[in-house]
Amino acid sequence: MKVLAFGSEAVVYxxxxxxxxxxxxxxxxxxxxxxxxxxxxxxxxxxxxxFLYESGLNVPRPLKYIESKKEIWMExxxxxxxxxxxxxxxxxxIGILVAEMHNFGIxxxxxxxxxxxxxxxxxxxxxxxxxxHSSKDEDFASDIFLFKNALKSKHNDLYKEAYRxxxxxxxxxxxxxxxxxxxxxKDIEERRRYNESY
Length: 198
Hints:
By secondary structure, the protein is α+β, with helices and mostly antiparallel strands. The chain is built from five helices and ten strands, in the order E-E-E-H-E-E-E-H-E-E-E-E-H-H-H.
C-alpha cells in the first residue's frame, strides 16, 4: 500500500485504486477508551459519507468499513485538490455544493480547498472526519466562516471576489428555512475579534 497522507488522527493509503483511511491509535488514551473513540468516529464518518453519496452529493463512493482495523475504504477520485489549483469560478461551484450538503443536514467541520478535489469540471468534497449532523444556522455559519478563513489564508489574492461568489451561490441554493446564517456569521466574526484582542 502507498501512503498518501499521515495526519494526527489517521493515515491514508492507496491500494489498487482504492483509498483506505485508518484511524491511528493514541497511546496517551486508555486503550478501551481509545478503541471506542476510534470505532465510533470512523463508523460515523463512513455513515455520513454513505448518506451523502446515496443522496447524490459529490463525495467519494464509500466501499466498506472494517471495524477491527478502524478503516474506511472508498473509491479514489482522480484530479487535483483545489488548494493547488483554485479559481474564482470554482468558488461559485463550491457554494452550490456546500449548500446542498447543508440542505442534507451535514456540517463538514474542516471545509477548506484542501478538502475539495476537482475532477475535470466536477468538484468533490472529501475528508468527513470532523463531520456531524445538524440543522442549526449557527453550525452552517461555522462551516462558512472556516471556509472564508481558508480562502483568506491560502488564496488571499482571490479572497474577496471568491468569497463573494461562494456566498452568493450558497444563498441561492440553501433551503428557505436555513437562511438565517448572516446574523450567525456576524456573531462568529465578532467573537473572534473579541478573543484576538485579548
